[in-house]
Amino acid sequence: MPAFGPPTWSIIVLFGLGTQMSTPAIILTGAVAAASGRFLLALGFRLLGNRVSVRTRRNLAAARAALERNKRGGLLALALFALSPVPSAQLFEAAGLTRVRLAGFTIAFFAGRIISYSIYAFTAKSIQKTSMGDVLLDAFSSPASIVIQVLMIVALVGLTRIDWARHLGGNAPTDRQ
After folding, report:
1. How many beta carbons lie within 10 A of that of residue 172, not counting itself?
2. I need a labelling partner for 6 at 20 to 30 A (CA). Which of 76, 90, 139, 167 fits?
3. pTM for the model
4. Cα(90)–Cα(82) distance, rounded to whole angstroms?
């Protein structure tokens, strides 16, 4: 679904441009939907982690070990990522595959989305009555966002093929239950 569903920020802007709905309600609903959806996506990918090759599990374990060694940097990177409009589904897919702890990860994502969605929603409300609003509504029908999402999923698959244990140093366990 992430590759073929519209990004949440685009729905936030669409509702900001096309409705009289309360802006705080739009922001909170969008952030809760995005965070809970990403959390469930990560859980689903955690189940898929048992179906990948031993080599891929070793690489994922090395990536997880590197993230766990530097928790502060990882949360800071997540917060910055959560503030950007870059698709986040692949980040949560990777989190599920690497079996990182999801609660803090999801809370940091939610906080970042509250901030970024506020920017999107209030900006959309401010341009709602201008001709630029019509231009933005037309831009949402572009197929380019679907192509970008598909490419990001391909990139995620590519990232699991990298020998992280070799590149990050150390011997990672082959499996962690």
Report:
1. 21
2. 76
3. 0.62
4. 12
